From TrEMBL, chain A:
Protein name: ABC transporter ATP-binding protein
Keywords assigned: ATP-binding, Nucleotide-binding, Transport
Domain named ABC transporter: residues: 11-252
One Gene Ontology molecular-function label: ATP binding
Organism annotation: Sedimentitalea xiamensis
Transmembrane regions: none
Gene3D superfamilies in the record: P-loop containing nucleotide triphosphate hydrolases (3.40.50.300)
Superkingdom to which the source organism belongs: Bacteria
UniProtKB/TrEMBL annotation, chain B:
Name under which the protein is recorded: Branched-chain amino acid ABC transporter permease
CDD domains: TM_PBP1_LivM_like (cd06581)
Transmembrane segments: 20-40, 52-69, 75-94, 101-123, 135-158, 185-203, 234-258, 270-295, 307-332, 353-373, 393-411
Keywords (A to Z) from UniProt: Cell membrane, Membrane, Transmembrane, Transmembrane helix
Membrane topology of the entry: Multi-pass membrane protein
Primary site of residence: membrane
Cellular localization per UniProt: Cell membrane
Pfam family name, one: BPD_transp_2
Source species, domain of life: Bacteria
Originating organism: Sedimentitalea xiamensis
């Protein structure tokens, strides 16, 4: 399906199902996402995009089916174990540490990946590598001026930027972003798109996004999820031209854009 | 390095109120604290004062240990006395193991108390730290009750109703000190107070300490950053158990007796209240709580039989009106000081707090009079209150007490708007408030 088809895909999803009670939300998803690919998942509201993210990242167990990260089966693994394997995600509904400072938010998201683990013999403020790395993330997400404020008082757009900062800070090689630009203004969106482009250089990106400008600007591949099933996967131009997609979703979405 | 936290100056939102200011790890407060501890017994020389200070120091260590859970880890425990109690009982048994104790310098004994507290915390924490909410609270209560109940059954370890007593002076003399004198015990406890406080403070600055805060605020997000919320809680829990055990050991050294009372749920409840009174949002909060509570418990209890009633009122009003505790109240004023506007508050404070204080004293006088009227032996109508002796069955003292209280209350009420206005003026640098 893509250029790196012969090597292990970063993410491989096989016949994934998820039901909440009687409601079948994910209904047989198959998807391979190659290393270094920027893959957008689009689809109407309630299609199950966030649920798919939750299944991949270990937030919910699937009803059946498999998820592999770099070839390793993720069945039964907790979110923290999956994260340690190099997968990091952001949330559609901002999920930060509102009472801690912006700086502290970022520093906490660096700790595990920098090897501090459950250490009780290091002082965080004495670890210059941590401070420097956190400050450079803050610089990237344009929040240096907000460094010492509690994250909870930031504006919505700033919190979204912090959400992305927390997600990328640990240097994971598979980054999953759930609607990173939702609710942002045009200029904020442009800024975030550029940011996402830079920080996911040489990484695998999976992204849920409603803004078609962002999708076509960033994605190498697009999958369309409708009612729990992927109805099309391919290069942006292929997906755009696909009549099924036109009918089910994209026509309406593209019209809404204009 | 600036690494804290919330700042809001809004007095109407005590819960969201801030930890302000910078958090440079500076040596000054520690040196000052050490000097104060050294000098205190030279000022308060009599034995009862030293007893009070020992009690205070032990409570501080315990409350700080407790706040590692409650304030920093977001875990509400109703049975934390168990860990200090176990540490204390273990130390009593070490004291009674004469051969071993004879080669052990007494100042090292608290380490054993800590290890026993930590050991028990490892066992209980292995299943209780799975979640932080109601489940954790219920398990802590259950385990607390369980161990308190077994203390009466397992007589060999807990000594039944009499408890276990011992003699600290059988230890190996420490540079010639045999800890016969109260003052020697005071310095031993003070040294451990400094060490424990410093270590607990440093713990809060380590990666695991920072993650304890993160897990407290948003355990789910922490899991998506590579941390198991459960393990983070477990580490906080066992370190808290360690320092609780140290507090128990210091109790054992100071009183040379431990009973069921040291680990029952009442003691667990008291340490929760002490910590809350001081303020869970700041590291130094529990220190204030322990100092104030110990003073109420010791000094006030000499003045009145109703001290527990007043302590209860103090706790309830803290929970209701100042959920940030004493530390929260103090830190609320940091912004006004920072911006040099605190002096605008002095006069309005005097205008409200002075009559407010008289109102409180008046109310407590009425409470005392009611108590005396109802409970004094027949014929003993005389009572002494605020250095005045009078007949609690006469009408005149009642009229005076009621009039003074009502007048003071009226003045307080009248001056509150002025204080509120001054408060807003002193804090309006944040803009948008008038
Ligand atoms: N934990 C849950 N329990 C029950 N139902 C759920 C749960 N999570 C999601 N759902 C349901 O699954 C469906 C898909 O939700 P999901 O959030 O995955 O959609 P989405 O594609 O991300 O939509 P949107 O574009 O609005 O974010 C919805 O009908 C939702 O109500
Ligand atoms: Mg969604």
């Amino acid at each position: 399906m893509n250029s790196s088809a012969n090597s292990t895909p970063a993410l491989a999803i096989e016949n994934l199902h998820k039901s909440f009670g009687k409601a079948k939300i994910i209904r047989g998803v198959n998807l391979k996402i190659g290393k270094g690919e920027r893959h957008a998942v689009i689809g109407p509201n309630g299609a199950g995009k966030s649920t798919l993210f939750n299944l991949i990242t270990g937030r919910f167990p699937p009803t059946s089916g498999k998820v592999r990260l770099h070839g390793r089966d993720l069945a039964g693994l907790a979110p923290f174990q999956i994260n340690r394997m190099g997968l990091s995600r952001s949330f559609q509904i901002t999920n930060i540490f509102p009472k801690m400072s912006v700086f502290e938010n970022v520093r906490c998201s660096l700790l595990w990946s920098k090897g501090y683990r459950y250490s009780f013999w290091n002082m965080v403020s004495r670890s210059q590598d941590l401070t420097d790395a956190a400050d450079s993330i803050l610089e990237q997400i344009n929040l240096t001026a907000r460094r010492d404020l509690p994250a909870g008082v930031l504006s919505y757009a700033e919190q979204r930027a912090l959400e992305i900062g927390i997600t990328i800070a640990g240097g994971a090689n598979v980054i999953m972003l759930d609607e990173p630009t939702a609710g942002m203004s045009h200029s904020e969106t442009d800024y975030i798109v550029e940011l996402i482009r830079t920080v996911t250089e040489d990484k695998t990106l999976v992204m849920v996004e409603h803004d078609m400008g962002v999708v076509f600007g960033l994605a190498d591949y697009i999958s369309v999820l409708v009612y729990g099933e992927i109805i099309a996967t391919g290069r942006p131009e292929e997906v755009r031209a696909n009549p099924k997609v036109q009918e089910a979703y994209l026509g309406a979405a593209l019209e809404a854009e204009h | 390095m600036n690494e804290q936290d919330q700042i809001t100056t809004d007095p109407t939102k005590p819960a969201q109120r801030m930890r302000a200011g910078s958090m440079t790890i500076s040596a000054t407060p520690w040196i000052v604290a050490a000097l104060v501890l050294i000098v205190l017994p030279m000022i308060f020389t009599n034995n009862s004062a030293i007893t009070i200070m020992n009690q205070m120091a032990i409570t501080i260590v315990f409350a700080l240990a407790y706040n590692m859970l409650l304030g920093q880890g977001g875990m509400l425990s109703f049975g934390h006395a168990v860990y200090s109690g176990i540490g204390g009982f273990a130390c009593m048994h070490i004291m009674n193991a004469t051969e071993f104790f004879a080669v052990l310098p007494l100042p090292l004994l608290p380490i054993f108390g800590g290890l026993f507290g930590m050991g028990l915390a490892m066992i209980v924490g292995s299943f209780s730290t799975r979640s932080a909410g109601t489940v954790f609270a219920m398990i802590s209560l259950g385990v607390g009750e369980l161990i308190a109940a077994s203390s009466i059954i397992i007589v060999a370890f807990f000594g039944g109703e009499e408890g276990i007593s011992g003699d600290r002076t059988y230890s190996l003399p420490f540079f010639g000190i045999e800890f016969l004198k109260q003052i020697e015990v005071y310095y031993l406890i003070s040294a451990w107070l400094m060490i424990s406080t410093l270590l607990m403070y440093l713990f809060s600055r380590t990666p695991i300490g920072r993650m304890a805060n993160a897990v407290r605020d948003n355990p789910e997000r922490a899991e998506f950053l590579g941390y198991s919320a459960r393990w983070v809680r477990f580490y906080s829990f066992i370190f808290s158990g360690f320092f609780a055990g140290i507090a128990g050991a210091l109790f054992a050294i100071n009183y040379e007796i431990l009973t069921e009372e040291n680990l029952n749920t009442t003691s667990s409840g008291v340490i929760l209240l002490v910590t809350f009174l001081g303020g869970v949002g700041f590291f130094f909060g529990p220190i204030l709580g322990a100092i104030v509570f110990t003073l109420v418990q010791t000094v006030l209890s000499l003045q009145t039989d109703l001290w527990a009633f007043y302590a209860g009122v103090l706790f309830v009003s803290t929970v209701m009106f100042f959920p940030g505790g004493l530390a929260g109240l103090i830190m609320m004023h940091v912004p006004a000081f920072k911006f040099g506007k605190a002096r605008h508050l002095v006069l309005p404070y005097i205008r409200t707090l002075l009559p407010g204080l008289i109102t409180i004293l008046g109310l407590s006088a009425l409470v005392e009079m009611i108590f005396h009227f109802r409970h004094a032996a027949t014929g003993e109508d005389e009572m002494t209150l605020f250095w005045t002796t009078f007949d609690s069955h006469a009408v005149f003292p009642w009229i005076i007490a009621i009039v003074v209280t009502a007048a003071a209350f009226w003045i307080t009420r009248r001056n509150v708007p002025g204080l509120v206005e001054a408060w807003h003026k002193a804090n309006n640098f944040s803009g948008g408030r008038t």
